[in-house]
TrEMBL record:
This is Serine protease. InterPro entries: Peptidase_S1_PA (IPR009003), Peptidase_S1_PA_chymotrypsin (IPR043504), Peptidase_S1C (IPR001940). The lineage of its organism: Bacteria, Pseudomonadati, Pseudomonadota, Alphaproteobacteria, Rhodobacterales. Keywords: Hydrolase, Membrane, Protease, Transmembrane, Transmembrane helix. The chain crosses the membrane at residues 158-180. One of its GO terms (biological process) is proteolysis. It holds the Pfam family Trypsin_2. One of its GO terms (molecular function) is peptidase activity. Gene3D superfamilies: Trypsin-like serine proteases (2.40.10.10).
């Protein structure tokens, strides 16, 4: 392919793809119609040129300061991958005519720009095509290679041809390696498809349960009725016994609100699964409502979220909670089936102490293999309060116990925060999972609930009691009337008379002395 003859003060369309590939269309008139004829060939027709049957897709106008493109009514034109109706053209712009039409590059020749075909020009055109075209990767690579080869063979310089062929060989090897690596990573990801689907399902569920402005409006309406009555009922229970009031007062500062986030990580590369974004920058969603996730996504890390309760253990420098709070993915069996491809990991794990405005960062110290227990530690152990003591003996059936924790997580604390706080938060728009907790703590509203119950049964593996609690209260202390921990709240049995289960403190002692700790 030979270069076009130099023409002063003109523009030329270098056709990169389509049936025109390798040809040039000169634009030397004040107005040139760009037409796709019935054979799919792109034609540049000035006034007086013989017209052919086809569709006019654009007009290029010569103006004082350059050239201007105007799309024909109903036509679809992209310039540098952006769909346009009218735009000023600049040196090197890549234009795509219609959805499946040809791709061309504009070259403007004047006193500053002269026609000189070079290796950089050819490779630059190929790179622009690869970057600009919206076709699949393999098709883009094939067309770019063909375009580069045909232009290189048209050059009269033997050395130039050899240089281009060598470059093409390097590019082919590089592209092949990237393709093989991409396929290998894709196969790994597909091997963990069940894990990805499970995480996407957890995210979709979290999205449904997220706090929205409408939820806050409804909450404001209910604060004065049902939720306020619940708080009053709990206050009444606490007032029924002086011992109970004393225990709640002494234990409250040691009951920790836990927040965690977790995602999936590619073991080999360390990449986290992220949300895939569309052209508009919004997250892509499948028709079933689940988000599209990929390690190559440009959005935020895909993070499922969980809340729970823990309590500080006196003299040990640790916080006791449930294993299913510290490693929440273990409750979802699908997240375990990823082979060696993906692994669930904590992205963030923090705790809030009652009456303190700032969160503390936490890490897992030990997980029990025999009970639903975990030990977690803060970055700064000195930030912990004195803590609670473990009881020396198990309670007996009929004995009263107090359960403390954060049932229903953030919503229960919002219910007790008052209408003004909820209204201010709603107006601020800061209703995200982490933001709500920050505001509650800053306002001094991070306090656990307590409920009274009767021990119904004792076994080696569990303590059964009827104190009211629900999800979010997992990991909270079950206290006797001396303020000692007799069990760690772990499970709810709604179909069994509202009974709940706790792990006996003997299992906590086992975990504290475990060699693997």
């Amino acid at each position: 392919m030979s270069a076009p003859t130099q023409h002063p003060d003109a523009a030329v369309l270098e056709h990169l793809t389509g049936r025109n590939r390798g040809l040039y269309s000169w634009i030397t008139s004040d107005a040139v119609d760009i037409m796709l004829d019935d054979d799919g060939i792109l034609r540049a027709l000035a006034a007086g040129d013989i017209r052919v049957s086809g569709q006019v897709v654009a007009r290029i106008l010569r103006q004082k300061n350059g050239f201007h493109l105007v799309a024909a009514p109903g036509a679809r034109i992209w310039v540098n991958r952006q769909q346009v109706e009218a735009v000023d053209l600049s040196q090197g712009d890549v234009i795509e005519f219609e959805e499946h039409g040809p791709l061309s590059r504009i070259r403007i020749y004047d006193a500053q720009h002269h026609r000189q075909i070079s290796l950089n020009d050819i490779l630059g055109d190929a790179a622009s095509y690869l970057r600009t075209s919206r076709r699949p990767l393999l098709r883009r690579l094939s067309r770019a290679a063909g375009m580069t080869l045909s232009r290189a063979l048209g050059s009269p310089s033997i050395l130039f041809r050899i240089g281009v062929l060598i470059t093409l060989g390097v590019l082919a090897v590089s592209a092949g390696w990237q393709y093989v690596s991409g396929r290998a990573l894709q196969e790994q990801i597909e091997g963990g498809r069940l894990q990805v689907d499970a995480l996407a399902s957890a995210l979709e569920k979290a999205q449904r349960e997220a706090i929205r402005p409408g939820d806050l409006n409804a909450l404001q309406d209910e604060i004065g009725v049902r939720l306020r009555l619940n708080a009053e009922r709990i206050d009444t229970l606490e007032d029924q016994s002086t011992a109970g009031t004393r225990v709640v007062s002494l234990a409250t500062g040691s009951v920790v609100f836990l927040q965690g986030g977790y995602g999936l990580r590619v073991r080999e590369t360390g990449q986290m699964l992220r949300h895939v974004l569309g052209r508009d920058g919004n997250r892509l969603i499948y028709p079933n409502g689940q988000p599209v996730l990929s390690p190559d996504g440009e959005g935020p890390v895909a993070e499922a979220q969980v809340t729970g309760t823990g309590f500080v253990l006196r003299g040990a420098g640790v916080i006791v909670t449930n294993r299913h709070v510290a490693a929440p993915w273990e409750q979802n069996s699908a997240l375990q089936f990823g082979g060696d491809t993906l692994e669930p990991v904590l992205t963030r794990f923090i705790g809030y102490m009652p009456g303190r405005p700032d969160a503390i960062n936490l890490s897992i110290l030990a997980l029990s293999d025999t009970a639903d227990l975990a030990l977690v530690v803060p970055t700064d152990v000195s930030s912990l309060p004195d803590g609670l003591d473990l009881a020396g003996t198990l309670p007996v059936p009929g004995q009263e116990v107090l359960v403390m924790g954060y049932p229903t997580g953030l919503m229960s604390m919002l219910a007790r925060s008052g209408e003004q706080f909820v209204e201010e938060m709603r107006l601020s728009g800061r209703t995200g999972f982490w933001e709500v907790a920050e505001q509650l703590a800053a306002a001094g509203l991070m306090w656990p609930l307590s409920s009274r119950g009767i021990v119904g049964q004792i076994t080696q593996a569990s303590v059964v009691y009827d104190a009211e609690t629900t999800h979010g209260g997992s990991g909270g202390p079950v206290l006797n009337l001396q303020g000692q921990v007799v069990a760690v709240n772990t499970a709810i049995l709604p179909d069994f008379g509202g009974s709940n289960l706790g792990v006996p403190v003997a299992e906590v002692r086992v975990l504290l002395t475990a060699p693997s700790r």
